[in-house]
Every structure is written in structure tokens, then in C-alpha cells.
Amino acid sequence: MSDLKRAYNFNPGPGALPLEVLQQAQAELLDFKGTGMSVMEISHRSKEFEAVIQTAEADLRELLGIPSNYKIMFLQGGATLQFAMLAMNLRPAGASADYIVTGTWSKTAIKEAKKLGTARAAANTETDGFNCIPAKLDLDPKAAYLHFTSNETIHGVEFFTEPTPPDGVPLVCDTSSNFISRPIDVSKYAFLYAGAQKNAGPSGVTVVIARDDMIERTPENLPVMLDYKTLAASGSLHNTPPSFAIYMVGLVFQWAKKQGGLAAIEKTNRVKAGMVYDAIDQSGGFYRGHAKVDARSLMNIPFRLPSEELEDTFAKEAKKNNLIGLKGHRSVGGMRASVYNAVTIEGATALVDFMKEFQKKNG
User: Fold this and answer.
1) Given 236, 258, 280, which residue is the final one in a domain?
2) Is 28 strand, coil or helix?
3) How many domains does the chain have?
4) Helices (H), strands (E): how many in the chain?
5) CATH code, domain with 334
6) Which residues are catalytic?
7) Both 96 and 151 in a single domain?
8) Within 13 Å of residue 291, how many CA atoms lie on the same side as its CB?
9) Is the Cβ–Cβ distance between 176 and 128 less than 8 Å?
């Protein structure tokens, strides 16, 4: 391992994983806990895998302080499936749901919900270029739920306080790209979901945290694999789950606890993001950030250079310097640094040093 040259990985998802987690998975790959089999080979009904999923759930409850009246599910289909699935389960027939639209993913979420019933935008910042958190919300006091995306991966916009729904309206959140990046008060939410591949593990598993009363909303006529009540009752084992991805997510939860928990992780994340934002702000306009300062994401930092030609050169030279995954999303262009939990301060320092040197040569 001492000769291994790891890339500085700024990919937006699948994103960087902690080296310690990868090394543990490597050590256990051929013989998991003395079984003589890989965790990918053992039965999901075995006591060994039962321990994997139960430990992952217990560690996540500890990290986030999840109350006992919430169920945790490890599902498939990504957050994109949840866009439709939560509307099927949580919005009663004839009811409407409110959505706060602050970027590509919340825009996609409301689009999916509208295919299945009534949904309305309580706010939409698209005319502002998806660069801010809305100052005002037009809320329906009878909405089935209020949905928001806590961190927009593409536009780099993050909520740092939860929106307040009307009394009796449940708060629903897509927390995919800032999941376990800082402490939150889970009791303020009725339902959270996160694709693990941004900040909590490899692709293939989606973590759902649902308050018991929300699961009881599930109608009787849903296909079984789209039915939260069935999936929760089975402990995420109604069918064969993405067992290796769940195992990896569990290792990431253990790693997060070893770092001192989410408060300690947030502190480090603020240092890393601050370093990159300082490099942007101190560049005299050579680098231009996207989000307004009070909405800047700690996880995803999009920025532009003076020309697309320079952006192409930046990406190519960054790759030569072992800085990977910095191209912006195809829908918006530019550059983007995703500084998830597993990105080290060393990695952020290497990026900032490169940005400064690149500006000297090309500014």
C-alpha cells in the first residue's frame, strides 16, 4: 500500500471513499469474517449479513440521532426512483404536494411527482440561474408534504436551515449529496432519502429514513417493490438487497464515527470548502463562483474561468496533476470541485495550489 498513488478525486458521484474504508474492504474481500467467502457471496439471509445490515442501521442512528419512531431502509433505484416512489406512497389520492425548486434535482423531483398527481412549486429560483435559496415560500397549508433538496449537486446551492412547512405538513428531503456531512435534527423531518454514491458509499444503495406515520400512508395497491410499508417491515430484505453496497455504506458509517462524528466532519468540511472558495474569491475574477455566498455548498463548488477554452485546458492540466473529476455537469459547463467527506485537506490543498499556479500562467 505504501507505493500506491491515489488520485485526488473530486468526482460528483460516485465520489471519493475514505482510504481506510477501501483498505478494510480489500482486506475482507476474499474472506469475510472467517466465512471463507466474500461479502458479495454470502446469503442475504445469513446471520453474517444480518449483522452487517443491523450494524449499519445502528451506526447511522447514532450518527444522526435518529429517533426510535423512524425506520431506516436500504433500497435500490437511486434518489431518482424515490422522486416517483415517495409521491406514490406519501401523497394521498387527490392531494397536492409542495416542492421548493432550487436546481436540477429538485426540478426533476417535481417533474416526476407531476406525472403521478398534483404538485406545485412553493418557490422556483430558475430565473435566478439556480444560484440561491428562495427568500419567500408560497406554501399550501393542506399540502401532503413539502419537499426540498438540501444540496443541489450541479448548481452548488445548499440549505443550512430547514424550510418551515405549515403546521401539520410533513417535511420531505432529498439529502443525497450532503448526507452525513454535518449534524441535522432528524425530528424536524418526516422523510429523508439519499443516494449513497455521493457521500456515503458506492453506487447501488439508497438510504431512506421515514417516520412511522409516513409509512402508514402507503396505499394498498402499489407494486410490492414500490411499497414502503412492505420494504420497512422486511428490514430491507423483501428481495435480495444490494448487499456489497450496504456493507460499504456500513463501513463508511463506522469511519464517520471514528472521525468524531458529524460535528467533527462538518468542521473539516468547512475548512476544505473555505480553502477553495477563498481561492475563487481572491482570484480577481479569474475564477467565478456560481452560488450566492450565503447559499454556497460545502460539498459541490461550481466555478467558471474566463473562457471555455481555458476551462478545457484547466481540466486537462488538472488531470496531469492527479486532480480528477473537475469538469462541470454537462448541462451547465464550467468546472466543479466536489469536496465530500472523504476528500482530504491534503486534496483540497493540492487543488488550491493548482488553481493559483494555473492563474499565474494563464491570467
Assistant:
1) 258
2) helix
3) 2
4) 10, 14
5) 3.90.1150.10
6) 105, 174, 198
7) yes
8) 26
9) no
**What domain range includes position 336?**
260-362
Q: Are residues 249 and 275 in the same domain?
A: no
Q: What is the CATH number of the domain that holds 89?
A: 3.40.640.10
Helix (H, G, I), strand (E, B) or coil at 34: coil
3-state secondary structure of 90: helix
List per-residue pLDDT tens for the chain, 363 residues long. 456 789 999 999 999 999 999 999 999 999 999 999 999 999 999 999 999 999 999 999 999 999 999 999 999 999 999 999 999 999 999 999 999 999 999 999 999 999 999 999 999 999 999 999 999 999 999 999 999 999 999 999 999 999 999 999 999 999 999 999 999 999 999 999 999 999 999 999 999 999 999 999 999 999 999 999 999 999 999 999 999 999 999 999 999 999 999 999 999 999 999 999 999 999 999 999 999 999 999 999 999 999 999 999 999 999 999 999 999 998 888 999 999 999 999 999 999 999 999 999 998
The answer on 245 and 147 residing in a single domain is yes
Structural domain contains residue 10: no
| Residue 12 resides in a domain | no
- Integer Cα distance of 54 and 50 in angstroms: 6
Distance CA 254, CA 248 (A): 10
User: 288 has which bridge partners?
Assistant: 304
Environment class of 223 (CB within 10 Å of its CB; exposed 0-12, middle 13-18, buried 19+): exposed
The last residue of a domain, from among 200, 234, 258? 258
In this structure, what are the phi and psi dihedrals at residue 247, rounded to the nearest 5 degrees?
A: -55, -45
* Residue 22 within any structural domain of the chain: no
Locate all alpha helices (DSSP H) within 97-183, ordered by sequence.
104-116
Global pTM reads: 0.96
Q: What's the DSSP call for residue 30?
A: S
Q: Are residues 51 and 186 in the same domain?
A: yes
Per the listing, cell 467467502 goes with 37
Q: What is the dihedral of CA 136, 140, 144, 146, to 10 degrees?
A: 0
